Amino acid sequence: MDLKLTRVLISDQADPSCKSILEENGIKVDVKTGLSKEELKKAVTEYDGLIVRSATKVTADVINTPGCILRIIGRAGTGVDNIDLDAATNQGIIVMNTPGGNTISAVELTCFMMGCMARSIPKADASMKAGRWDRKLFMGTELMGKTLFIVGLGKIGREVAIRMQSFGMRTIGYDPIIPAEAAAKFGVEVLSWDEMLATADYMTLHTPLLPETRNLINEENISKCKPGIKILNCARGGIIDEDALYRGLVSGHVSGAALDVYDVEPPKNEALFKHENVIATPHLGASTKEAQKRVAREIAEQFVDVVKGRPLVGVVNAPSLVHASSKHLVPYVSLAKKLGVVLASISKDKALEMKLEGETANKYKSLLVSSVLFGILMARGIKDVNMVNAECRAKENKIALTITSCEQSSDKISLAARDITLTGVPCHATDIITNIDGIDCNVSMGRCTLVVEAYTSRIDLLQELSSKMGEKIENINFVKGRVFVGIQGEIQQEHLNSEKIGKFHLITY
Ligand SMILES: NC(=O)C1=CN([C@@H]2O[C@H](COP(=O)(O)OP(=O)(O)OC[C@H]3O[C@@H](n4cnc5c(N)ncnc54)[C@H](O)[C@@H]3O)[C@@H](O)[C@H]2O)C=CC1
Ligand SMILES: O=C(O)C(=O)COP(=O)(O)O
To answer: What tens digit of pLDDT does each residue of 108-125 get?
Structure first.
């Protein structure tokens, strides 16, 4: 994907290395934190790149601001729930994060919070500072032999498991995509959900905030927990129903909670975070020097990769794009896009078929589907389309693409409408249509391709073309009443005499 960035705005606190890496690579950068929504809406009409952490809320109305020129949003961190991904995708904006850059910091905070709960360290410290020596008040419990229920066994969940096992804890856990055998490899047992709630002494949450995880820990699940459960949330506010948690703390059914994240930040729910059995931190999971340096550097380098056309990492909303710039796939992407352009220039059909043959074409199916749709939509004059939003725009424009695959044969891409079928072979030198409607041919898709419909006189046509284009003509193919002319270099529509050659399509890529 060809993306030029002129100005990037960093709108949250980020390590200075983020700005300096971008600037060293010729990208202009401003840092403006604490923007109001109105200021952010204005900013997206002035900056084509935006880098945020969790404080900036990149909502749909920000993204859909008239005149928004954003092309890429970078999250210097993990969670992207502060960015409206659907709105960004629809507008063709790439969203990237830096998965893993702050994992260990969030893991360590979770483990320390557990220790603090077990031994009442914050309370004991406050009591000392208040001039007391309350040795009897702060009787703790050991972690050794206790059971920890980990909800979400991704990067953070599994690292928490490994560390807490070294304290002698039994670790049990649930993750819809991690089978029991995989969890067993990092020492986590999988029991039934209700069994885990009833068994755990501690429960720690490490899922993203998704519609399925919102209020996952609610009144019902809390009531199923073993009395005295201690609950930690260093993942996202909103995964716990805060009112239900508060009621559990007041009744004593929940004996402690450690919270780093809140439904609304800064939190409004004072009664909860001021409760005597709650340890609260202001979203500090990623706030270490190491994590901040890492995520700042990573997001800046990812932006530079985009500008330099290198393979992408960390793309959240267009996974197929990750490979778009890989050298070996460039011919496939280019061929798919150009077949889309040619087909849509000739045919108005909206129900299309794409056949992918060969191992590589099938392995990168979603990338090639985006490429072909991009070509089709461009040729049909759809505005603001790119590889990120091609599928959304195709749906909006009621273009249906059916995909068939055949892995065994050699690499080939075919695109068919009711009135024409085009096939091409990915080739590093130039993009070529090798077959049209079952007839072998050799039509180059270099700068321009001319397609003449229902020609009446071959002689007239050839005379007209050679007088206008001469050596620019690369190849001429006569296929079932149409003529396909591959042209090297530019040629203007007005230079062709339609009276002489009849209806034609002059296709540029
Ligand atoms: N407090 C802080 O400052 C930080 C918070 N985080 C947050 O921590 C959370 C976890 O981050 P990572 O481990 O890096 O993410 P990850 O993507 O590696 O792991 C998340 C796991 O949750 C699982 N999951 C999804 N739905 C689930 C459900 N209904 N029940 C159980 N598991 C479910 C996924 O399958 C995945 O394996 C995220 O919400 C992230 O935003 C991350 C870094 C710092
Ligand atoms: O990376 C994450 O998911 C975090 O929650 C860290 O948030 P922050 O970058 O500290 O605002």
So the answer is: 999 999 999 999 999 999
Helix ranges (H only) for 200-325 are: 219-224, 242-251, 270-273, 289-307
Could you tell me if 290 and 105 are in contact, meaning their C-beta atoms sit under 8 angstroms apart? yes
Q: In what order do the strands lie in the sheet with 49-52?
A: 28-31, 7-10, 49-52, 72-75, 94-97
Distance (Å, rounded) from C-alpha 368 to C-alpha 321?
A: 10
> Residue 78: CB within 6 Å of ligand 2?
yes
Dist CA 99 CA 275 (whole Å): 33
Ligand 2 center to 294 CA (angstroms): 13
**Closest ligand 2 atom, CA of 236?**
5
Closest ligand, as measured to the CA of 103: 1
User: Which pLDDT does position 228 carry in this prediction?
Assistant: 98
Residue-level length of the chain: 509
DSSP letter assigned to residue 315: B
Phi, psi of 301 (to 5 degrees): -65, -35
H/E stretch holding 306 reads: helix 289-307
Name every residue whose Cβ is closer than 8 Å to that of residue 347 and which is 6 or more positions away in sequence.
Answer: 417, 418, 419, 420
Per residue in 437-456, pLDDT (tens digit) is: 999 999 999 888 989 887 66
Considering 75, 170, 283, 294, which one is annotated as catalytic? 283
Between the alpha carbon of residue 308 and those of residues 26, 246, 247, 299, 325, the distances in Å are 11, 51, 54, 14, 10
Q: Which amino acid is at 9?
A: L
Probe ligand 1: pick from 82, 178, 206, 215, max atoms within 8 Å of CB? 206
Q: Specify the residue with its C-alpha closest to ligand 1, atom 17.
A: 154
Neighbours of 176 (CB within 10 A): 9
pTM across the whole model: 0.90
Ligand 2 atom nearest 235 alpha carbon = 5
Task: Please give the biggest Cα pair distance in the chain.
Answer: 106
Q: What is the ipTM of this complex?
A: 0.99
Among all chains, which residue has been given the structure tokens 């340096």?
Answer: 293
> Residue 390, Cα to own-chain centre: how many angstroms?
15
377 vs 177, 204, 338, 384, 414, CA distance in Å?
35, 47, 11, 10, 17
Q: List the structure tokens of 26.
A: 């010729």
Q: Collect all residues with Cβ–Cβ distance below 8 Å to 383 and sequence separation of at least 6.
A: none
Question: Do 450 and 491 form a contact (C-beta atoms < 8 A)?
Answer: yes
Ligand 2 atom closest to Cα of residue 78: 1
Radius of gyration of the chain (CA): 30
